[in-house]
Design brief:
The chain is about 30% helix and about 15% strand. By secondary structure, the protein is of the alpha+beta class. The protein folds into three domains: about 50 residues, no CATH class; about 150 residues, FAD/NAD(P)-binding domain (3-Layer(bba) Sandwich); about 100 residues, Glutaredoxin (3-Layer(aba) Sandwich), CATH 3.40.30.120. Strand 6 and strand 7 form a beta hairpin. The chain is elongated. Pfam families: FAD_binding_3. This is FAD binding domain-containing protein. InterPro entries: FAD-bd (IPR002938), FAD/NAD-bd_sf (IPR036188), RIFMO-like (IPR050641).
């Protein structure tokens, strides 16, 4: 998928396979103050590509474009003028391509927003719920933009380590024990560039990320705001499925190991929002019990409430607690924090 080309005096270049058989992207860095964009004619770009490939092969150039890798995140994801207008994906944030965090961040935006629009349109949530979209997603974009920028810096440092300051070839540098050690250290320093699972699925809505946590150090947990942890479980007819597959994208999923206490004997059908009950031991079977313990569902009177976007809303033991928990979110979003506090003071990368 991704091929790094490192050659002396060539800077950082990449080939990205959009489709390995017939669609590739060639990327090269350039200094806009020294090289005007008009330089990038098809003839010029073909020379760069041929040089990077090491030989000439037939190909068609479909398009040539330039872009700036400066990270940018919108201050607001919901329009202050058009209240039903929202920005998602690249319209909300642009990162350096290093690390590939932009696509998944954009998918997370849509994942967060679409069920909230559905809830408001169907009348079981207040319009204020839509304000929680930017409050939850902006801190994620800020964190991912920081990591993308750091990845960009680290990969340039790797290029400097590979060729040094004396115009040596990579082969010559690798024969020098000291230089080889520098290259190995620079490679290891790019670890988070290629392993960022915790940034991709380990973020927690409403909780600031620890500055000491590695981008790839994903720890499944069941606390409000975290994504429902994946595990392989079995259905009643013996099929293997992911725990993520039991959720309903247009309803709250209630994971239970037993029946909730019925305050005033009210059935679950009386709640004011769409809900799906999933019983452990009946609808899904967790054979070794590890996921059940992780979710805190070994007690029969406990239930975990999962939002339609597969994030944990909280834990309840009664129907009244369930109704109150969901109401606190969909009616007033009371637990959603201020995103500037979550992002810290480093907000100069945000743009109007």
């Amino acid at each position: 998928m991704l091929w790094f080309i490192m050659a002396k005096n060539a800077g950082k270049r990449n080939f990205i396979a959009y489709n390995r058989s017939n669609n590739w992207v060639f990327v090269t860095c350039y200094d806009a103050t020294a090289t005007p964009k008009e330089t990038f004619t098809e003839e010029y770009c073909r020379r760069l590509i041929d040089q990077s490939l090491g030989k000439k092969i037939p190909y068609n150039v479909l398009s040539i474009t330039t872009w700036n890798t400066t990270p940018r995140v919108a201050r607001h994801y919901r329009s202050k003028l058009i209240r039903h207008g929202f920005v998602v994906g690249d319209a909300a944030h642009c990162f350096p391509s290093t690390g590939g965090l932009g696509v998944n961040t954009g998918l997370g935006d849509a994942h967060n927003l679409v069920w909230k629009i559905t809830a408001v349109e169907n009348g079981w949530a207040e319009d204020r719920l839509l304000d929680s979209y930017e409050l939850e997603r902006i801190p994620i974009a800020v964190e991912n933009s920081r990591q993308s920028r750091l990845n960009e810096k680290k990969v340039h440092e790797l290029s400097r380590a590979a060729f040094g300051d004396n115009g040596q070839s990579l082969e010559e540098r690798m024969q020098d024990p000291k230089a080889r050690s520098e290259i190995q250290l620079a490679l290891m320093d790019n670890y988070n560039h290629f392993d960022s699972l915790d940034l991709q699925i380990g973020y927690v809505y409403g909780k600031a990320r620890s500055p000491h946590r590695r981008a790839g150090h994903y720890i499944p947990e069941c606390i409000p705001g975290t994504r429902l942890p994946h595990a392989w479980v079995y259905t009643a007819d013996g099929r293997t499925i992911s725990t993520l597959d039991v959720t309903d994208y247009s309803a709250f999923t209630i994971l239970l190991s037993g029946s909730l206490q019925r305050d005033n004997r009210r059935p679950l059908d009386d709640v004011s929002f769409p809900a799906k009950e999933v019983y452990l031991g009946k609808d899904i079977i967790d054979k070794d019990g590890a996921w059940t313990r992780l979710m805190g569902l070994e007690r029969a009177s406990s239930a975990v409430v999962i939002r339609p976007d597969q994030h944990v809303l909280g834990r309840v033991t009664t129907i009244d607690e369930l109704q109150n928990l969901v109401n606190s979110f969909v009616l007033c979003s009371s637990y959603v924090p201020d995103h500037e506090k979550l992002c810290g003071t480093d907000l100069q990368i945000l743009a109007e």
